[in-house]
Every structure is written in structure tokens, then in C-alpha cells.
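User: Assemble these into one structure.

Assistant: Restating your components, then the assembled model:
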Amino acid sequence: MSYEIPDDLFYTKEHEWARREGNNVVVGISAYAQDSLGDIVFVELPKAGEELAQNDTFGVVESVKAVSDLFSPVTGKVAEINETVTKSPELINQDPYGDGWLIKVSILDDSELHNLMSAAEYEEYLGKEAKEEIES
Amino acid sequence: MRVSNLKRTPIFEAHKKANAKFAPFAGFEMPIYYSGVLDEHRTVRKAAGLFDVSHMGEIFVRGEESEKFLNSILTNDVTKLTDNKALYTVACFNDGGSVDDLIVYRISKSEYLICVNASNIEKDFNWFKENSSGFKTSITNESEKWAQIALQGPKSDEILQPLTNIDLASLGSFYFTRGRIDSTDLIIARTGYTGEKGVEIYLSPENALNVWNFLLEKGKPWGLKPIGLAARDTLRLEMGYLLYGHELSKSISPIEANLGWVVKIKKGKFQGSDVLMEQVEKGTKRRLIGLKMIEKGIPREGYPVLNLKGENIGSVTSGTLSPSLNIGIALAFVESNYFAPDTEILVEIRGKSVKAKVVRTPFYKPN
């Protein structure tokens, strides 16, 4: 199975993506993540102004069967949250890299982004994960 | 190379072709969803769905004292059955705890098919054998000799009637009969786990894949789709139907779980009847309730249930977002004095107390 992995994004081991937008980093979950979750029916996001450290949980995304934590790819302050997605969580399944974005975090320095995986590295990472699943 | 200890039903290849997402369940590699749980759930409620339930167990009880034996270990009254009729019942331990919930199909006075939960097949079979020692009966576990397909939904009869020699209009609830689909001999029963009109089909494993593909093909114009275990669970939960391991267990009695209607104390002594009778007369400390969220949130298994003062009064046994109602629903055990419908309670979700209320089940009423 192949998943869309846009080239201009950074990726975490927990399947979040990060995109630079001026002084902000836009965060969402990858196409692989939304597919693994199945139908998403509920999203809980932080409040604007909340401080996050890299790898902090910043909310949850819920499918019909399960709850999944969301992990922040960067350190910063929550600048904006996607209200539309809290009302229509299925947007995350339909358009995980576009309308399904979750939060925007304002950051002071972008060096953390370079700790994350590039699209090519994430693709390789997914390949390894899939292989482990098959072998388990 | 893949090595797996998981069993597969005879219909596995069809699920693979349909790109099902698989997961282990009761030792089987089962399809959890195909097109998605919400789509599948709504398909069953609006049109019809096809479920591979071949993992369920089939235990046969035969012999001249079959009825007597079954009536001694089941809570419901087996003597009320006639040929080709079935009933839903619980089997209890002596302390009133539940061995399993199951359906008994009377083929004849000396032959009964018992359908049991997949996760309890070995346990139930052994328990039946142990308890049958004083009776002229033979117990066999024929689970591997039977496949099972459920066809459920408002359009299910319209889909099936042209394909079978059985007059579905005259097949009443909990009746079953031998008949044919296409040219395949099988058993068609008016039982189900979704609340919708439908049937459960018992057939030989050799024919299962063909019948599955045949039904899907013929049902396609009606909107028939294959349905996975995820939607099977949301469908039964909307009906308030129990799932052993959640609402029933070794330490939960059918009286606590609102199954008093399948406990026929008046029929005479049966395993567990002393304790169950006392529970009926004196009440129980806890009761099973249905709850509906008032504030946004999804109640899930294990989440604490609190009263409005914030005191713990119980916990959720099964919960989900109801695809039909678009709100969180759950079954939960709570202290008996909170049993009344409309009682306001709280569900603790990730440390926050979220408002809910007690409701009667079913949560959803099919047309």
C-alpha cells in the first residue's frame, strides 16, 4: 500500500507532519495515520496560547474504536486551532494535508524541524513499519 | 515469510480481495472493516449488509434427554421450544455468574444446535460435557464443520427471496428452517445481532465462499456490502445488545445485566437458579444502564461513571460514537439507585467529567 507523502513537509515517528508557514508551523497527521485510524469521529485540540514542547501530547484524535494521542513536532505556542475540523473530524480522513490540518504553532527557532524526518526518510520509515507488521 | 497462529474462516480470500482491514479476534484473522465502519454501519441500517460470522461456535446436543439436560443448565425455558424454533438464553454457574450467552436452535426434541460466542467455544464445550454426565445425551463441538453468514438490513428479504426456496415472509422471528440458496443446502434462521430484519445462515465450510460471493453479487443492486466486526459492534451497541466479556462475564449475572426476561425462575431448579431467584427478589447492588452523552465526548470501556457530586458509581462496559445518532452512547454498570432513565450522571473522559444521562435501550429503533 502506498501513501501520499508530500515532499515539502517534515514528519515525526508518531505520524504527524509539520509545514513551515512564516513564523508558524502547521501540524497535522499523515495519510498513513488517518488510514490506520479508520473513520475519525472526534478531535480534541488545545487552546490557543498553550505552550508546547517538542513531543508533548497536544490533543487526541478518536476513531469509532480507539483514542490516539497527538504529539507536537515542535516547541512553541499554539497560535491557531482548526475549528472546522473539530466540527467535521472526517476532514482529517478526506484531506489530511490540507483542510484536515490541526494546529498552528508559533516557534522562535526552526532548528527542531531538522530533527524530524524528511519525506524520503518518512517513506523509508513507513516501509520498515509495514515490514515489522507483516513479520509479527 | 509470514507465520501466524491465527485461524481463517473459509471466506477469508473474499475479504482479502475486498481489501478488508484485518485484526485478530478470538484466534481468527477477521475483517474489521472494508469501506469504513461508519459507511458499513449506515449501509446495514438503510439497505443491507453481509457478515462473515464463521468464527462463532456450533455445539450439538443430541439424545433422548437433551431437553432435560439443557433446561438444567440454561436460564431460559427450553421446553417452550418446538421444532425449528430458537431462543436466546444465558448459561450460569452455580453462583449466578455467566458462562456465556447463546442461542439454542431446536432441530428436534433429540437434536439441538447451540450457537456460542467465538471466544468461549472450548470453555462452553467442556462445561456442557461436564454437566451432561448424568443425562442420556451426547455433546459434540462441530464449530469446524459449520460456517455462518449473516444477512441483515431492511432490504435483506428482498435480496434473499429470489435466491431461496424458503418463503421468507412466513419465517417468523426466532424460527429457522432448512432450505436452499441457489443450489446449496443450508439452514436459514430469523435471528441476528443488529436489530434489523434479517437472517443468519448456517452452512458447510465448503460452500461458504460461493454463497458469500453469490449473495454479494446478487445483492449489489440493492446496495448490499460486506460488513466487518467494527460495524457489527456499533450496530449491536445501538440496540443495547450485550457482548460477553463486557456486559456479561463469570462475575456478572444475567439479572444484573437486565436479562431477567431470559431467566425463567418458575420453570424449576437449574444451575444458578438459587442465586438468581434471590437477586430477582432482593435486587442487586449494581445494574446495567444505557447512557447517552449530553456534552461532547465518547464514552469508552473502562471509563469511570460518576454521580453529579463527582463520586464514582460505576464504569463503562462498552461505548462508542453512535453512527446513527451522532452522539456518544454506552452501556455501563452503576449502583442500582442510579438506574432510572433521565438520571443525570457524569463520564470521566481523560480526567474531565462530561455530562451524560441514563436512557432506556435500544438507543436506536429500527423501522
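The interface with chain A takes residues 2, 21, 33, 36-39, 230, 233-234, 296-298, 300, 320-321, 323, 350 of chain B (CB under 8 Å).
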